[in-house]
Amino acid sequence: MGWFVEYYNGCGLKIKVIDKIVEHRGIQRIEIYQTESFGKMLVIDGKIQLTEFDEAFYHEMLVHVPMLSHPNPKNVLIIGGGDGGAAREVLKHNPDRVVIVEIDEKVIELCKNYLKIDGNALSDERVEIVIFDGKEFLKKAKDFDVIIVDSTDPSPVSMSLFDEEFFSLAKDRCDVFCCQSQSPTIQLNYFKEILKNSKVFENRRIYISYVPTYPLGLWSFLIAGELSLNFKKINRRYRKRKIKTIYYNPEIHISAFNLPNWLKEVVDDVLNERRGRNA
Ligand code: SPD
Question: Does residue 163 have an active-site annotation?
């Protein structure tokens, strides 16, 4: 069929597509493609959200780092995540209840029918799906053990999930919070904004992962709350919960917090409210 190209600041990723499986234009433009090398691919508003080839690299790191930071996560909130990949990973921890708050019901419908990466999580009886704005939901929400934000890139639809008010609401409603925080290499402004806006969390930390089909391959996550970076503890929980993963392991969990010097400097500058080299 041709090539799909995702453009970022001054460069782009070009992926050979065989077929467009479905497209819907509503509050977001949702497309699902069959690619030549990466299986099916979900694109929202022109940005790759996942490919079958590497979605686990992202979802496992987004989910297992916060879930294993908690001693007993039974009640979990996912904001976004309408494709069901994050819920699939959360269910591996045997929670009592998982609430997915997704603003765009078409994401759920199309992913359930055409993408099918959720491992039936979207139909699991422990999973409750609420079609609503994530921030508005939080205003009235009760407490969760873990809140995970699996959002799209900042856009008019998702922007409210990245501001100070959102982080402040989230802080009051969970023990452990985690969100995706964009590419620190090619989306540095977004990355710094997220870090800055989350200052309500006293002990927030950044960790990174490799996701080949995301901008420049290096992806970041922000985690906050009651954290533990003790390898023995994380490893014990991973084994006790009998988690099976293809990317995540407790060694990677700990090492993901070791940032390269340039990124450490950016993070330190924001945390200390300094105007650094990269301001
Ligand atoms: N451009 C990459 C944005 C990735 C964040 N969202 C991914 C959603 C997959 N569940």
Answer: no
